[in-house]
Design brief:
alpha/beta, Thymidylate Synthase, Chain A, 2 domains, six-stranded mixed sheet, four-stranded mixed sheet, 14 helices, globular
């Protein structure tokens, strides 16, 4: 055993510290012939899980994909085309190009059972319950040959000292590629459940029995650590990503993805998107229209639609949190750098 234990303010601070410790004390192992350095277990405790984004510019963390994947999980989805919208590379892990075998959503919501609602009801009945658990790993499913075996085992929710704590247990976690999205997704769910219970967030503990870094990513990780020496490149606790809406509201957001994937002509699709955003804004569900705008912004980025992206960039400068907007602005600048450079020179 070679444990790594980290207690930090937020996800990014824990992530950076874990990268450092893996280089300092990680042991070399090579499952399936792929060399990694590993901490076993890796235990990361984040005291403020509402500060959940990764701002490091070398990592180029994708906020749109983070929100999309969280939505995909919590709405019980497994379709490949919904997540490949903002991350085409992830499609290589689908066995058939249509669905994902290890998709957490279909394991959380299946056969008429919604484990998220079960957790909420359990904690409403007994605030001291030790039975509010979401199980993800399935021995029968995960022993089948597949490119997509579930990495997560279970999520346990506890109300302690009037706050909602979360303990996530994983069999395996890639610190550079997996953790930034896993911690975002699970703390997002923690936030939603806390909203349903009407209590504040507590801590988020992320346990991976194998917290590892692949040799092929060593140089990338070293560049990330170098960039982290600049405090402007690290998410501060004051840059929270508060989520004010509740669980059923997520299904309203999920309908936006249906519009993105519809077969209508792009010009008609843009009209449908505008109509959807207008209706959502009129419903005045705190924060929901902002997340819809963020998803639409990343869709416009993906479609290289400068006009739509530019308009939403201006809206989100006012509506998004400072941390969210920093990521939005970086994505906007990367995608349209030639157009922005030309406009600046006019």
């Amino acid at each position: 055993m070679n444990p790594i234990l980290i207690q930090a303010n937020n996800s990014e601070s824990a992530w950076i510290e874990c990268l450092k410790l893996l280089f300092e004390k990680g042991k070399t192992v090579a499952p399936r012939g792929m060399v990694t350095i590993e901490g076993s277990p890796g235990i990361l405790v984040m005291e403020n899980p509402d500060s959940r984004v990764i701002l490091n510019p070398v990592r180029k963390w994708n906020l749109g994909f983070g929100i999309l994947e969280a939505l995909w999980i919590m709405c019980g989805r497994n379709e490949a085309n919904r997540v490949t919208l903002f991350n085409r590379d992830i499609g290589k892990f689908s066995d058939d190009g249509v669905t994902f075998h290890g998709a957490y959503g279909k394991r959380i919501i299946h056969d008429g059972i919604n484990q998220i609602k079960t957790v909420i009801n359990s904690l409403k009945k007994d605030k001291d319950s030790r039975q509010a658990i979401i199980t993800i790993y399935d021995h029968v499913l995960d022993e089948q040959p597949t490119k997509d075996r579930a990495c997560s085992l279970n999520l346990m929710f506890l109300i302690r000292e009037g706050r909602l704590d979360l303990i996530a247990n994983m069999r395996s976690n890639d610190i550079i590629r997996g953790f930034p999205y896993d911690s975002f997704n699970f703390s997002f769910l923690q936030n939603i459940i806390a909203n349903e219970l009407g209590i504040p967030l507590g801590s988020y503990t992320h346990i991976s029995n194998s917290m590892h870094l692949y040799e092929t990513d060593f140089i990338w990780a070293q560049r990330i650590l170098e960039a982290a020496k600049n405090p402007d490149n690290v998410c501060q606790y004051i840059q929270r990503c508060n989520i004010d809406f509740k669980y059923d509201d997520l299904f309203k957001l999920d309908k936006l993805i249906d519009i993105f994937l519809s077969d209508t002509l792009y010009i008609a699709k843009k009209h449908d998107i505008d109509k959807y955003l207008s209706v959502l804004e009129n419903n005045k569900i705190p924060g929901l229209s902002t997340y819809a705008c963020i998803l639409t912004f990343y869709y416009a980025i993906n479609m290289r639609d400068y006009e739509m992206a530019s308009g939403l960039h201006s809206v989100l400068q006012k509506e998004a949190t400072p941390a969210e907007f920093k990521l939005i602005d970086a994505a906007y600048t990367r995608r349209f750098k030639d157009i922005l450079k030309e406009a600046k020179n006019v």
